[in-house]
Amino acid sequence: MSRNTESNTYTILFATAMVLIVGSLLAFVAQSLKGKIAENKRIEKQQNILYAMGVNENEEGSVNFISKKDVDNAFSKYIVKQYVVRGLKATENNKAYLIDIKKEAEKAKKPSYARRLPLFVGEKDNKTYYIVPVRGKGLWDAIWGYIALDKDLVVEGVYFDHKGETPGLGGNIKERYFMDAFTGEHIFKDGKFEGITVLKGNADPKSLDKADCEVDAMAGATLTGNGVSAMLKIDLKMYEPYLETLNQ
């Protein structure tokens, strides 16, 4: 008995079967790669944290992370403590780096939820670093980063990244010239928390004034710069009660 392959019924059944087969294959592949994807995310996060505190393989003008094969040993060597911060209280937790701050922000929309804030303490060359993760919204999508502070709450280094900012414009938040401008900046001014503002025409394009809580904006990327400013003000502010205890 011949099959009418031109009928609507056949077309619908064939399409349905193909969707089921392809969907099953994609689900299988996704499940198979789940562990590898999680491992890559962990490595990337640890590289970003280390980069902010100056543990990297940078050359002149370039951005180079510590290699994947060395990241485990480097993270264990340089990150001496991990905390979960809630207000003035910081609880030591050696898995704090696994906290997803995006998911924490979603959960915190419920007034009853006490948001977990990861904080990393690094030591290098007899100096202590307090590394804070931040996340915000750029022009097109999410932006995020890590800010390394010393005990006086002066920025020692940063790392920024983005999901979909415009290459050559907002995408420059992950370029050396922009990130390096934050080094030495203060987040407090006259004893009051200010964060750091990315400001167009701030009369300090070379970021020589480190006490003004400002860095020069990227050309053609005002909205992305505003997103970085908001991210730093909002997320660093959440850590303020604990950070202020560092000098007490």
Could you please describe the fold and organization of this structure?
This protein is α+β, with helices and mostly antiparallel strands and 248 residues long. It has one domain. Helices cover 36% and strands 23% of the residues. It is built from five helices and ten strands. Strands 2-1-3-4-5-6 form a six-stranded antiparallel β-sheet, sandwiched between helices. A two-stranded antiparallel ribbon has the order 7-8. It is globular, with a radius of gyration of 23 Å.
Main attributes of the structure:
single chain, 248 residues, alpha+beta, six-stranded antiparallel β-sheet, 10 strands, 36% helix, globular
Q: How can the largest sheet be summarized? A: 6 strands, antiparallel
Share of helix among residues?
Answer: 25-40%
Look at the helices and sheets and give the structural class: alpha+beta
Q: In percent terms, what proportion of residues is strand? A: 15-25%
Based on DSSP secondary structure assignment, what is the total number of beta strands?
10
Distance between the termini: 89 Å
Strand order of the largest sheet: 2-1-3-4-5-6
Low-pLDDT runs: none
CA-atom Rg in angstroms: 23 Å
The secondary-structure element order is HHEEHEEEEHEEEEH
Shape: globular
Total domain units: 1
| Tally of helical runs | 5
